[in-house]
User: What shape does this take?
Amino acid sequence: MTDQELQLKVISLRRTMLRLIHNAGAGHTGGGLSCMDILNVLYNRVLNVSPQTFTSPTRDRYVQSKGHCVEALYTVLADRGFFPASDLDTVCRYQSHYVGHPTRHIPGIEMNTGALGHGLPICIGMALAGKMDSANYRVFTLLGDGELAEGSNWEAALAAAHYKLDNLFAILDHNTLQITGHTREVMCNEPLADKWRAFGWTVRCVNGHDYAELTKALTDPPESGKPTFIIANTVKGKGVSFMENVAKWHHGVPNETELKQALAELDVAEAGLKSA
Amino acid sequence: MFTPAAKTMAEKLGLKMGRANLEEFAATLEELAKANPNIIAVTSDSRGSGKLAPFGKALPKQIVEVGIAEQNLVGITAGLAACGKKAFGVSPSCFLTARALEQIKNDVCYSDVPAVLIGISSGVSYGALGTTHHSLHDLAVLRAINNLTLIVPADNFESREAIRFAATATKPVFVRFGKAAMYHLHQPETKFEVGKAITLRDGNDVAFVVTGETAIHAVLAAAQLAEQGVQARVLSVHTVKPLDTESILKAGRECSAVITVEEHMVNGGLGEAVASTLLQAGVCKSFRIVGIPDEETVPGAQADIFRHYGISMEGLTEAAVKLIGK
Ligand SMILES: [Mg+2]
Assistant: This one.
């Protein structure tokens, strides 16, 4: 898929996700919008995984550590054909496995996440297993920047470098906001790149909404013997003007009027892209 | 651990001293891992305390050291298990089941990967090191987590069988070990089945329903009680979850009184599980839970702590006599 095709696709993914959250009456809108481009590139360009190959032992693994942005993941997985799009109507409904955080009941999901600071250690186990088996799959995880305050990430940061896991890629959805406000005010994690370099990782900083930059960061071969940390600078609420960079949209649910306005903005963006 | 009278009783019963269950675990795991390269031990600077140093020497490619990082230990174990490895995460139960409880709950049990967790030096094995090193909460918290088989072996035989089971299990398993040498309690023909308690001695006056390394004390107490004309049943409940409710109800119905024994706080452990099983089936018998009470644990070595709280031949004999009023 070309960059432009992906850019068009992500508009429809954002649309689907906003409708989903509106219908479910719950969800993580801001973070879902900030990581949607990353997921779009991962599932349509990077990950060696499909509904047909999902049970293959050599598939690439993706574990969404920031499990609360599951609505974005459900949307992308449905688009990739892991399950029927109509399943999205059941998110957060009685007896539906489409709960508010990822579970392995859903086709395409590797591990149950949602408590923060769990994805990276799990991915180390997966990457170690790949090394032991000389399998050439890669392991990806997506972290939130607020999530980095969980100490388990730093236990894992040590171990990934110690075991020279160059098959491991951690992506940071660096939208600089968390539920309470600016991450640098809640619990500052800067200087981020220096920290991860000091822990022995290769660090790549990219615009998390730029398809060429994301693709390069996610597909360039890793430095031999080093895990890769990709800081994707993103905008929380990306694509909807009144949601962008507003902390209350962390788990704000658009009402009827807000949904309409958001979808109208996406229509304008789509028309602009098509005429470009 | 044993008074001279208890040692004499063990001799009279022909019981032979074995090794620590932890040593039996390590030897069994090494034997299995030599035949199955998919078996991986994961340690948190705990290969020495887990008796896995020989394993590490013999099978260096099958051991993963994570350093002193229990959350990471459980997450990594889960990740390995999700990718086809038979991973055994080995760490002192006090840290494993407190600091890494969320990883046990989510990464292993909720994600439903076939990982095995080994809680070593559990209960008050580290007696004199104090409460930081005691795990008197582990059965209670693990019982409250769905999708976990919870095994607490009483002797070397149960330990070996538990590890053999865990090595082929397709669901999460937790096994809890102490580090003191254990008497052999079972006959060679004994069958071990997860979820099925083993009757170590029959009798109908009182039932000792016991788990783990306290079982020996109940066996000795039962023998002492027999000398006083009291026939005690001893049920070794090696699987705390799923609980063998059938054997427990049978004991409750057939015996005049029930005493549970565990190296665990009396809150939330085997005793309360047994009480709930009996009461919900309408079986109301004289009942007593022997374990560590809800207080700051008395300082001392494991043997001191056991004696202090009546987890001994003498203590359990006395508890039985009191309970049945003879
Ligand atoms: Mg954030």
User: Anything to note?
Assistant: Residues A 144-146, 175, 177-178 surround magnesium ion (CB under 6 Å). The radius of gyration of chain A is 18 Å. The beta strands of chain A are 61-64, 139-144, 168-174, 177-178, 181-182, 202-207, 228-233.
